[in-house]
Write a sequence for this structure.
């Protein structure tokens, strides 16, 4: 539906703004997680049909009931898990960066030091 | 017809909630309230998945995006802010 | 100047995405294509009631295999990156006790260590009593969601994440020492590999029977609607749930183990 698409795009653009302009490394990872959530919302909203029901074959289905599209939901499950994995790996890197450089400011860790 | 109107109204309300929580994530400066705001975004998105007739995805997003991800953010935050005194 | 440039480019992106969403809303529905065929053939070919689980484990099994690889890589990479932190298992307190009482049994020594350590740190009583109540409920709910993946909303991933929350609950209520005593990190690493390998071997069952990879060849054992039905989907649910709970549990134990021990004087 229309407002779902606009909402998902707004969340993605806000996440992108956080990634572009904030200085703290942890905030950048929060922005990446926001982009992932907005993208999953967009994927599931594509497969919605107004008036449909959940794609489970229960025994007392009303005659004339139709399902929403189950394929985007299956792909969104994979995408959610991958988003969480990438966030966890990025946070492990941040722990190591803080130990080595002493700070997690994105401007100060920019130069590679030997 | 009125049932259709009710569904669209609740849907619009939840989308407005998602966008407002995401705006809070941008505006706030400290990190811990920012992590909690991202958890609120995840919860609202899980609620929206229920309205879009997707219960599997709702359970997955609620468990991962609203519980697991903020937990590892808080562990990282606690580790980063530790003082070097007590080795 | 930089902030103005960021706002300007993002507002152009926003205008473009509003136009794209208007065009997307006018497209015909995506249902009349592959989804029509899948929904019509779900019960005959797989015997599963839940169409999304049938798609994830049977019709598009390769995507699940790739996602297992990504989860395994993330957990292993995290364990390698955070490797050099000493686990907080042996401290000078324990060394003194062990040297002075050599002829007591191991159980009594551990009990004395527990008593000494519990008297140092005071635990919040609300969190402890809530965790005592919530932990068995969440474990059984997670096991139910894993096993009934083909009958009701749920499946391998969701149940695995719910059970892996047990590590988080134990850490919040009892502190880091109890986590390293209750969960044995080496064994959990082995369990994750066992889960991943069994998922792969269930995929090659189709090749053994003479068909292609990931084909559901034992789908007509049991009627649709019973607990043991839908062939390899039942076993794959269990294998993936096992893998996910071991993997995410190991990731949480690794990240918790980097925190320094807390001690109140």
């Amino acid at each position: 539906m229309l407002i779902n698409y606009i909402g998902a795009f707004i969340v993605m653009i806000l996440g992108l703004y956080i990634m572009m302009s904030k200085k703290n490394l942890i905030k950048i990872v929060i922005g990446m997680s926001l982009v992932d959530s907005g993208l999953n919302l967009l994927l599931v909203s594509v497969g919605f049909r107004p008036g449909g029901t959940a794609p489970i074959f229960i025994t007392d289905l009303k005659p004339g009931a139709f399902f929403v599209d189950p394929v985007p939901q299956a792909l969104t499950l994979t995408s959610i898990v991958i988003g969480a994995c990438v966030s966890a790996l990025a946070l492990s890197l941040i722990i190591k960066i803080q130990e080595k450089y002493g700070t997690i400011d994105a401007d100060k860790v920019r130069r590679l030091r030997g | 017809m009125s049932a259709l109107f009710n569904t669209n109204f609740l849907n619009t309300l939840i989308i407005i909630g998602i966008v407002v929580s995401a705006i809070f994530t941008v505006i706030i400066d400290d990190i811990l309230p920012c992590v909690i705001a991202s958890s609120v975004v995840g919860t609202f998105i899980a609620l929206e998945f229920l309205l879009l007739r997707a219960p599997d995805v709702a359970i997955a997003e609620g468990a991962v995006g609203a519980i697991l991800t903020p937990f590892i953010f808080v562990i990282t935050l606690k580790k980063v802010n530790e003082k070097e005194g007590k080795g | 100047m930089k902030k103005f440039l960021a706002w300007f480019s993002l507002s152009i992106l926003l205008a473009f995405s509003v136009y794209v969403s208007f065009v997307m809303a006018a497209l015909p529905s995506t249902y009349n294509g592959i989804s029509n065929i899948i929904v019509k053939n779900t019960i005959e070919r797989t015997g599963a009631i839940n169409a999304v689980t049938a798609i994830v484990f049977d019709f598009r099994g390769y995507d699940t295999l790739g996602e297992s690889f990504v989860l395994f890589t993330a957990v292993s990479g995290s364990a390698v990156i955070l490797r050099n932190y000493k686990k907080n298992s042996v401290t000078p307190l324990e060394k003194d006790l062990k040297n002075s009482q050599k002829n007591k049994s191991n159980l009594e020594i551990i009990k004395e260590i527990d008593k000494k350590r519990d008297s140092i740190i005071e635990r919040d009583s609300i969190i402890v009593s809530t965790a005592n109540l919530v932990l068995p409920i969440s474990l059984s709910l997670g096991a139910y969601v894993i096993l009934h993946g083909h009958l009701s909303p749920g499946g391998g991933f969701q149940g695995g994440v719910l059970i892996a929350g047990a590590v988080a609950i134990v850490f919040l209520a009892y502190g880091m020492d109890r986590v390293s005593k209750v969960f044995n990190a080496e064994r959990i690493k082995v369990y994750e590999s066992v889960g991943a390998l069994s998922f792969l071997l269930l995929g090659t069952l189709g090749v053994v029977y003479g068909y292609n990879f990931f084909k559901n060849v034992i789908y007509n054992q049991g009627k649709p609607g019973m607990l043991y039905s839908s062939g390899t989907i039942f076993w794959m649910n269990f294998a993936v749930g096992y893998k996910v709970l071991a993997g995410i549990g190991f990731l949480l134990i690794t990240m918790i183990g980097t925190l320094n021990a807390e001690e109140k004087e």
Q: What stands out?
A: The CA atoms of residues 72 and 247 of chain C lie 7 Å apart. Chain C touches chain A through 52 residues (CB under 8 Å). Residues 88-92 of chain C have pLDDT under 50 and may be disordered. DSSP finds twelve helices and no strands in chain C.
